[in-house]
Amino acid sequence: MRFVDDEESKNKYKEFLENHERCNFQQSLEWAKVKSNWKNEIILAEDEDGNIIGSLSVLIRKIPIFGNLMYSSRGPVCDIHDISVLKQLTEGAKQLAKKYNAIVLKIEPDIKSDDQVFRDLIVELGYKIKDDAKNFREEIQPRYVFRLDVKNKTEDEIFAGFHQKTRYNVRLATRKGVTIKEGTREDLKDFHKIMIETGSRDGFIIRPLEYFEKMYDELAPTHMKLLMAYYEGQPISGVIPIMYGNKTWYLYGASSNKHRNLMPNYLLQWEMIKIAINNKSDIYDLRGVSGVVDESHPQYGLYRFKKGFGAEFTEFIGELYIPFKPLRYKLYKFSEKTFRNLRALKTKLRKK
């Protein structure tokens, strides 16, 4: 086990990540730069010949009063059923916890909830599993997503797998004159204006424009695109897909209150799926939905929208964590929950 600590090890890590079947953009060096308000450490597991066989990118941040928090989004990248590799990565995490006097390590891997072999291994290594999250606000990364298998498939094969109504809406958008263009960094301003409109309508917090500009600077054009939908020359919707390794993700989307009847969001999804196919991705990830699959749930419309693209409803294992300072971590969790509830209440009151 060792850490990424120079340009040579960075290059070797990047090559390993991009070519691994469990690759995730949130484990990348580029994404760590986007999250530069966190310190980044990357743990490497190695075989006897010094070859990289596993990795865990960890973000570290000072939490006022409580201490440092260690967080890894969508790691580890390795054979998740090889306990020797998982031991190396966990040992590295424990070393970092001592170095930074951390209160906890939190990991949100993209490993399916029903993977009992992994569950048993991770518990044996001292991790706890948070198994009760259903809604978006309960974890940092979505536990429930839709994933579309696009490996070695043609556009016609994928399109035929859409729900009939989804195919109709994609065609409707084109027929009604909606056009899609790839945006530039400057077009992020239009995207962000529409994003503010979306957040106000749907009740979620919007990141500042500077955050999206930083994403663009670090990831575009190789790993990020901005796609904008136009009607009569005016921007009405936009999306940000991320392409990394063997996957493509729908990361952000924004839609105006105007011209929603033209179904621009359906056409944008189809354009992102075509990007995934052309990039020879294995998976197109539509990202999060609520785990409450009920027509009366306020987010059921999002579930129905993503399901229409023929993707698989996928439940991940959720949050894994090792509390290095259990009492302090409990106090932190209580304060965090209180803050989120107050923020949600403030957003709700603002909408009235």
Quick recap of the structure?
39% of the residues lie in helices and 26% in strands.
Give structural notes.
The protein has helices at residues 7-19, 29-34, 83-100, 116-124, 155-160, 164-175, 188-202, 209-219, 264-278, 300-307, 326-351, and strands at 2-3, 39-46, 52-63, 67-73, 77-78, 102-108, 128-130, 144-149, 179-182, 227-231, 234-244, 247-255, 283-288, 312-315, 319-323. By secondary structure, the protein is an alpha+beta fold. Strands 1, 2, 3, 4, 5, 6, 7 and 15 form an 8-stranded mixed beta sheet that branches. Strands 9-10-11-12-13-8-14 form a 7-stranded mixed beta sheet. A hairpin with a 2-residue loop joins strand 10 and strand 11. The mean pLDDT is 94.
Order of helices and strands: EHHEEEEHEHEEHHEHHEEEHEHEEH
Main β sheet profile: 8 strands, mixed
What fraction, in percent, of the residue positions are helical? 25-40%
What form results from the Cα inertia axes?
globular
- Low-confidence region ranges: none
Rounded to the nearest angstrom, the radius of gyration is: 21 Å
Number of helical regions: 11
Strand content: 25-35%
Helix-strand makeup class: alpha+beta
What is the rounded distance between the termini? Answer: 54 Å
Number of strands: 15
Provide the residue-averaged pLDDT. 94
